Predict the structure.
Amino acid sequence: MNEPTTSAGDFIADTVRADNENGTYSGRVQTRFPPEPNGYLHIGHAKAITADFGIAEQFSGTCNLRFDDTNPDTEETEYVESIIDDIEWLGFHPNQVFYASDYFESLYDWAEVLITKGLAYVDDQDQETIQLQRGGFGKPGVESPYRDRTAEENMELFRAMRAGEFADGAKVLRAKIDMQSENMQLRDPVMYRIRRGFHHRTGDTWVIYPTYDWAHGQSDALEGVTHSMCTLEFVTNRPLYDWYLNHLDLPYEKPQQLEFARLELTHTVTSKRKLRQLIDDGVVDGWDDPRMPTLQGLRRRGYPASAIRNFCAHIGINKTNSRHSLEELESFVRTELNRSSQRRMAVLRPLKLVIDNWPTEDGRTIEEVRDAGDQSPGITTWFEIANNPENADDGMRRVPFTGELWIESDDFAEVPPPKFFRLSVGREVRLRGAFLVTATEVVTDDQGEVVEVRATYDPASEGGNAPDGRKVKSTMHWVSATHGLDAEVRLYERLFSALVPGETTGDPLDDLTKNSVEVLAAKVEPALASGDDGVDPGQVVQFERIGYFAADPSHPMLFHRTVGLRDEWASLQKRS
């Protein structure tokens, strides 16, 4: 199921192929990815990125990155830099990087062309009035009283708008199309509005800014884009896209807009407004919080870029909106990490295990040392354990073993329930790669809670196998209490509890999981130390028997759970 496909698209690829066969663009294929730099990219953008860059690669074309920076109030250089970084991390490299602001002068000149042709006019009405006059489906539009201004008057007013002679919102430039069109996008859309604000690239040079619909298609045309891909919500914008281009002299062949279904996931919200609210309300720590669906958040959580690319290739490009299971994406993540990540042992909820008959430096056992009132974890033995059973080339690592160990508290039961095969008094288990041990007694605190388990080991079972061939039903991981390191581990639940957040109440934030992160003080083996002899920032390892965990890029000895070991997607498929 998790084999990546080689096709970058389906019906879009067929369209491009047909254009090439017909010589529509002389065999040239050029696409673009056009984000607005008003926030961080999220998982939904990953599908658009793989489609835009994938089509270009499939047909030996080029794909540019173009920032739709036409709104100075919400756009920042921080977002520009993060978007470039995210695209590179995903494994794609733009042929060139452009900005809509590169074309502000050209867009202005083309707007004057439409004014000269009588196809654009300056409207003095406010935004609310214009919106009301547009009407609605089955409700006719009302023409602006300023619609019949002469070209000369419109030109004079438009140039005065640019010169800053009017207040913000005092006037707009509208295309003169058809106020009775069934397509609402053609009911004299706004092309320019007056908006004073500091632009991250042009500063205070401009006080009028083009709308998305006016800037987008013309930017495509100026760059020589052949196939302009966007998501399905823009299908009604296509006639407007074409109308603008049909009334201008273009430097290249007219580009064509193609729409595909956006990526929607269960338990996930991708609205930038809602994501920003999560940050502002303190629900998450920032755009890169591992619970966020942003690429920065997924990256910090340990999602491999290759798994995201393969998932996007797997779901393909189609014309029907659908919501994919988050477990399906996690399955791709798990498959990639199972192949690539090294194994380590970590104990998330530590319980002390003392092996009474373990030898100490002076030849006594730990039990004898304790009876004498002394303390010693005993001698240290080093075991060679495979870094990754899935890849022999990853080699082995040396793991220290002593007579005092940390085990998971869940791996011991004072009164074992049915089908509990892990450690309990009188029961023998295997310690991963080390010895067979049998619990003999427990030590409890004043509240009766078990704080220590006493055990004995079989010296003849080194490596975890009994010489007489006896079988044990459980293998447990462990960490030497002497050599183990302290680490903070964060376990994450779904940020939203509902499959479709907000479906019932209308507000996705009503479906927030109350406790979506659990912070644990864990004990980990020395190979998990931060630095040259341990894990690199951002590296993902498998905590044996627990799941996959990513070392935080900035905070040493902090690990985020990426996904668990259990393939929930496979289980869902079996039940369906």
